[in-house]
Amino acid sequence: MTYDDDAAKLTELGRALPGIDLDASSAARIAQRARWNIGRGPSLMRFVEPAIAAVLAASYLVWAIAKVFEALR
Amino acid sequence: MQPRGIAGVTPGVVVRSSCDADERAWVLGLRRGDAAAFDAAFAGYRRRLYSYLVRMTRRRDVAEDLLQETFLRLAQHAGKLDPGTRLGAWLFTVAHRLVVSWARAQAVRNQLAGDLPRREVAHDDRSPLEALADSQAQLALERAFAALAPAYREVALLVGVEGLPPAEVAQILGQKPEAIRQRLARARTQLAEALGEHAPASWRTP
User: Fold this and answer.
1) Are the beta carbons of B78 and A26 separated by less than 8 Å?
2) Contact with chain A for residue B147, Cβ under 8 A
3) Against a cut of 0.90, is the pTM above it?
4) Fewer Cβ atoms within 10 A, N terminus or C terminus of chain B?
5) A-B contacts at Cβ under 8 angstroms
């Protein structure tokens, strides 16, 4: 059985699967929200949150290393 | 996040619900920030993406969230789209990555909740997908697709339902075309076994 045979048989089966759609109000809400973001680029929070987490983790690491040195003195 | 390697996919000889010329016009419109182009792309792909997401996650609420995220990313990256971008492949790549992330998070959640007693929920024993089926054959088909392993189900949906060519499916899933062919062959075998008497007549003849 070749790829084309497999694809043709699955396409035949796929035609019997009904498409599933959202209700109109959810679709309108999603479209409106996405449309508002056209050309705006990713949200700044996408970069700010990891940056805050990185600063906190780095501060904790520095504090832990300082404590180790303090104990060794 | 611009999916890599999608813009130059060679179009396959398949029937598509939206024609390539429309798609090119939508991409050019999106690059200009044209809301009408976005609306046209949304109308053209909403149902296809939602069907794919529902069948991959088996949850309408999750599928709705992932659909929203897919189109949000399209809106956010509209200006950066390459003029030759194949929009369908771009959208399915984003949707696929969102499904993978969701599945990973779900696996971690299930692992963490493994020791907790299961909450009994009162419901009938049909999934939302099965509730859509209006005949025994369609019910058997939904169940057969749902029973496939996610990797096989995804290939079966993208090739069988969406009619995408193997090169494009390989790029969407980040796999080699050979792996896609193998998954497709296994998906077909498993579907034939699961469908039994509900399989189309042509499937039963060697």
Assistant:
1) no
2) no
3) no
4) C
5) 119
